[in-house]
Design brief:
With 206 residues, the chain is an alpha+beta fold. The protein is built from six helices and eight strands; from the N terminus they run αββαβββαβααβαβ. A four-stranded antiparallel beta sheet has the order 3-4-5-8. A two-stranded antiparallel sheet has the order 1-2. Helix 3 (108-124) runs antiparallel to helix 4 (129-142). It is elongated and about 60 Å long.
């Protein structure tokens, strides 16, 4: 959205609309509060997007979103009709594919472009650090299974080399890691049926 303050205003305004629609802060998924004990109905915001999740039934989402639509209208906020989906168990949500309500998968068109780029870089055997950084940026967006980041090490070291726009031959280590991206792409998913871990073993910058 260009500036940090514009994201803040968008999200704050949308949160106020959610409250007016009866979506309580206690069921909001966010960094500032613990995950609700009861996740049968929760919602989350991403700047100007609202995502409502429920296991109670489609009628709950229909009622909540109808109330939110009224709240948006009262606040002169126009809804993006093409992004509006209601009571579905599949579709694209914040650039990620929801599959039958049980898996988040990498968005297939984006994943296809990533795999084509990785195959081409492996084929020619060279690229600039900046180009590899761009490819890894897409891989990071597709990686919903965070432990897969453990397979990337030499590639990140390569992206820090200077000058960043000069073509350089890729080492065997970088090529092997790029081949792993292709081999592991079937696991670029998050299983929403998994139980929450009782502890956090490790984390990364994201």
């Amino acid at each position: 959205l260009g500036f940090a303050w514009s994201s803040f205003i968008a999200q704050s305004t949308l949160l106020a609309c959610c409250r007016a629609a009866g979506l309580k802060d206690s069921i909001c998924l966010c960094d500032e509060r613990p995950t609700p004990d009861d996740t049968s109905e929760v919602y989350a915001l991403a700047a100007d997007d609202v995502m409502h999740f429920t296991t109670v039934g489609a009628h709950v989402s229909e009622q909540r979103m109808a109330a939110l639509d009224r709240s948006l209208l009262e606040n002169c906020i126009e809804k993006h009709q093409l992004k509006d989906e209601l009571a579905v168990t599949g579709g694209t949500c914040i650039g990620v594919d929801l599959d039958e309500g049980t898996f988040f998968n990498a968005h297939s068109p984006r994943l296809a472009l990533l795999l084509m780029a990785v195959l081409e870089v492996i084929r020619i055997g060279h690229c600039s650090p900046k180009q590899l950084d761009s490819i890894l940026g897409v891989a990071q967006w597709c990686l919903l299974n965070r432990p897969l980041f453990a397979s990337l090490d030499a590639s990140y070291a390569f992206t820090r080399q200077l000058p960043e726009h000069d073509q350089q031959v890729l080492s065997c280590g970088v090529l092997a890691e790029l081949a792993l991206v292709i081999a592991l792409c079937p696991y670029f998913e998050a299983d929403l049926r998994r139980l929450w871990s009782p502890f956090l073993a490790a984390t990364d910058a994201s």
